[in-house]
Design a protein that fits this description.
Layout: E1 10-12, H1 13-20, H2 24-32, E2 46-48, H3 49-56, H4 69-79, H5 83-99, H6 113-126, H7 130-141, H8 153-170, H9 174-183
Antiparallel strand pairs: 1-2
Helix pairs in contact: 1-2, 4-5, 5-6, 5-7, 6-7, 7-8, 8-9
């Protein structure tokens, strides 16, 4: 993928914060100080994607030059609330998180691919996007759930993995149905297909 100047593309402060690990307040302060232009009108402040790219430079696996034009377009659509784009963006970060799940490769502070994946996948799952539900199940199954009580982390991750895979199966996700049937072979009336 090649570096791409995208001065006309913008994303919300919340998405900028998730992608960069900087808080929404930090992005607001940067706008107030004139370091980043504020785009958009009304309540929802937007920042140019170019400013987000600059904030991500030097971050392994998420460097600014890793974004293709198609990736940026998908990100903008995901930020605007499109469920399919959210699922696509979430799945890309989920793959990064799953590849880096080995304990020997801790994520860079503020640039946790698993956290970014959860952000997009949860929003898509709220809109009944079955692929997003399935990806959430895979993240939890790999032990990549949001940080919680360490003593219950494995049990919680397993329960959440099963819940998300079951939800994806109930929404017609074929792979999730097969996984659920393999995990729970003696449970009658598992979703066989179609939408629930």
């Amino acid at each position: 993928m090649s570096a791409l100047p995208c001065p006309h593309l913008s994303i919300s402060l919340h998405t900028a914060a998730i992608l960069t690990g900087r808080s929404v307040r930090t992005w607001q302060r940067r706008i107030e100080e004139g370091l980043v232009p504020r785009l958009g009108s009304g309540v929802r402040a937007l920042v140019p994607f170019e400013a987000v790219q600059q904030s991500m430079e030097g971050v392994p696996g998420e460097a600014a030059n890793a974004w293709s034009a198609q990736d940026v377009q998908t990100l903008v659509r995901a930020d605007q609330g499109e469920a399919l784009a959210q699922a696509q963006m979430g799945s890309q970060f989920a793959l990064l998180a799953l590849r880096g799940a080995a304990p020997a490769t801790p994520p860079a502070p503020g640039h946790d691919a698993g956290r970014i994946a959860h952000y997009f996948l949860e929003r898509a799952a709220e809109q009944a996007q079955a692929d997003a539900m399935h990806w959430l199940g895979l993240l939890y199954a790999a032990g990549l759930g949001p940080a919680g009580d360490a003593s219950d982390a494995d049990a919680n991750n397993n329960a959440m993995a099963l819940m998300w895979i079951a939800k994806a199966a109930a929404h017609g996700h074929a792979i999730a149905r097969q996984q659920l049937a393999a995990l729970l072979p003696n449970v009658p009336n598992l979703p066989a297909g179609g939408q629930a």
